[in-house]
Amino acid sequence: MRKYILIALILTVSACVHAQDSASFTMQEISADTIPVDKLSVGVGGGYEFGGLGANVIYYFTKALGVFAGAGYPLTGFGYNAGAKLRIVVDQSAGTFMPYVMVMYGYNATIIVPSFPEKNKIFYGLSVGAGVDYRPGNSKFGYLSATVYLPIRSTAVKDYAENLNYFYGIPYATNRIFPLSLSLGYKFIFLRHKITPVKIELP
Which residues contact 187 (CB under 8 A, 6 or more apart)? Predict the structure, then answer.
């Protein structure tokens, strides 16, 4: 009888040790999965998504798809933009470089005449963009975002510049209306998506 009890105790201890090793191995897999991607971030910077020089908030419904809104000062008046962002998430974790594309509606052009500020004007429309999120040093607190935009403008922008020249004698070269635009900002992370543990069967 004692023999059977001793065998049962040995088997029980062995099973506990094996379970502990498995759990430890699973936790190592979670840690190796680096840092979860952000779910809610607040950014500051300059560019369309920040409404000019300003700030924005982005919320990711999934690890890849988010919506954002930004407001700021586009060197005259008040600017805003709102849209959606789709980033490439290779696995459940955040990479050092994460490319993305975005589409938004809001301010996408300004005409500024320093000598006649009353003639300054902001134009609104759609813009599309592509860029990359960069986490220097695999930071847990935030990351840099750099974007190149293609604003989809109506002819109203060039028409207004030409009208300034023709009707008011205010020189404004239409070649100052650039076909592309850039932005740079820093996003502070407030919430993160959870990483689902991946169980690996040991042989």
Answer: 38, 41, 42, 43, 58, 133, 142, 143, 144, 145
133/88 Cα distance (integer angstroms):
10
Q: What is d(CA 113, CA 110) in angstroms, rounded to the nearest whole number?
A: 10
Query: What percentage of the chain reaches a pLDDT higher than 90?
Result: 62
Q: In angstroms, how far is CA 54 from the centroid of its own chain?
A: 15
Residue 12, pLDDT > 50, answer: no
Residues 1 and 70 in one domain: no
Domain that holds residue 50: 38-192
- Say if 202 falls within a structural domain: no
Instruction: Residue 123: give its domain's CATH number.
Output: 2.40.160.20
Reported pTM = 0.78
